Amino acid sequence: MKKRFIVFGLIVCAILMSACKPKDEAKHDMVFYDYFDTVIEITYFKDDVDEAKVKTVIEDKIKHLNDVLSNFEGGAIDELNKSGEKDWPELAPILERTLKLEDQTGNAVDISKGKLFDIWRDAIESGVLPPESDIKDALMQGGKGSVIVDGDHISLNSGAAVDLGSVCKGYLNEELKKDFDSLGIKNFIISSGGNVTVHGRRAADRKNYSIGIENPFDLGDPFDIIYTTDKSLVTSGDYQRFVEIDGKNYHHIVDLNTGYPSDNEKRSITIVGDDAFLCDFLSTTLFLKSKDEIDECLKDFPGYEYYIIYKDGTHFVSEGLKKYVKSCGATLE
User: Fold this and answer.
1) Where are the domains of the chain?
2) What does the alpha-carbon distance between residue 130 and residue 146 come to, in Å, rounded to a whole number?
3) How would you label 42-71 residue by residue, b for 16+ Cβ within 10 Å and e otherwise?
4) Which pLDDT score is estimated for 7?
5) Burial class (CB in 10 A: 0-12, 13-18, 19+), 20
6) Beta-bridge partners for 209
7) Is 37 annotated as a binding residue?
8) Is 229 assigned to a binding site?
9) Who contacts 173 (Cβ-Cβ below 8 Å, separation ≥6)?
10) Is 166 annotated as a binding residue?
11) What tens-digit pLDDT sequence spans the chain (333 residues)?
12) Distance CA 119, CA 125 (A)
């Protein structure tokens, strides 16, 4: 049995931070290890800044959202799942938006299937496959219409258990963008696991950042590089969290048609767009879809592009993304 937990984004930050210092603004780094079950790395560029204040504001927001959105024992989501209902003005709009996205994209992702996701989370941690009967039982719990949002009131039925793993880090990045704006900081990089958000200029003479797409076949070196700014890039893949049992890999992205981790031709998909929340949701959803289904789905989301790495080592770049991709001829500006 072999387990692997990849903190996607470390390679991205290494690429970004090696040459990102603007000529006219100081570079500041922050790293947080205790939230969202990942490493959160942030770099911002600003002269004459109160670093202690910035760190306090940012960490307070990360801690708060970790308490709100994560599924740890005794947390707010755990309490909702146990009680079955709650008045929750902060969470209700997050659930409502996610449920609408599920309907819009064919329900490949379902936040009500927390019991099924917990089974596979435990399996990856323990290295022991769950009984098929447990998977079948969990697959029957929740489903469309089992999470109901009425104003600020949230209610669960049909055995639903909320799990926001498909959107929580994207939501975090969007909220941190607001905090940086309120602090008067315009140039920054946020990397929360597989979710990277870049904003502003990487240097006075460079308008773009260099963002590496991790190579699932050779961790540590980028498979390719995207040059961009004012965008979020979110990757979902079968190599980030998985366990190998009897020579077969079982990862964390579950196919709701079978109840088992998805088994398709992709190793990873990276979504690029303006909104980290939407990129986060789409990266999980589109990992579960065929290329034709991806293209059809993204007709509803203009401006969102993708990069697929396949199991055979080939890759595909959507047409609108090519002008930003190194292997397609793009250069750092």
Assistant:
1) 27-68+177-328, 76-156
2) 24
3) bbbbbeebeeeebeebbbeebeebbebbbb
4) 40
5) buried
6) 228
7) no
8) no
9) 190, 192, 195, 197, 232, 276, 277, 280
10) yes
11) 333 333 443 344 434 444 444 456 899 999 999 999 999 999 999 999 999 999 999 999 999 999 999 988 888 899 999 999 999 999 999 999 999 999 999 999 999 999 999 999 998 988 999 999 999 999 999 999 999 999 999 999 999 999 999 999 999 999 999 999 999 999 999 999 889 999 998 777 788 999 999 999 988 889 999 999 999 999 999 987 778 888 888 889 999 999 999 999 999 999 999 999 999 999 999 999 999 999 999 999 999 999 999 999 999 999 999 999 999 999 988
12) 10
- Fold held by 76-156: T-fold (1.10.3980)
Residue 146 near residue 112 (C-beta atoms within 8 A):
yes
> Cα separation of 99 and 29, whole Å?
35
b/e per residue 163-198 (b: at least 16 CB within 10 A): bbbbbbbbbbbbebbebbeebebebbbbbbbbbbbb
CATH code linked to domain 27-68+177-328: 3.10.520.10
Mind giving me the DSSP string for 173-238? HHHHHHHHHHTT--EEEEEETTEEEEES-SBTTB--EEEEEE-TTSTTSEEEEEEESSEEEEEEET
- Look-up of token digits 């599924």: 71
- Residue 179's identity, in one-letter code, is D
Alpha carbons 170 and 193: distance in angstroms, whole number: 10
How far is 71 from 294, CA to CA, in rounded Å? 29
| Residues 226/211, Cβ–Cβ less than 8 Å | yes
3-state helix, strand, coil in the chain (%, to 5): 35, 30, 35
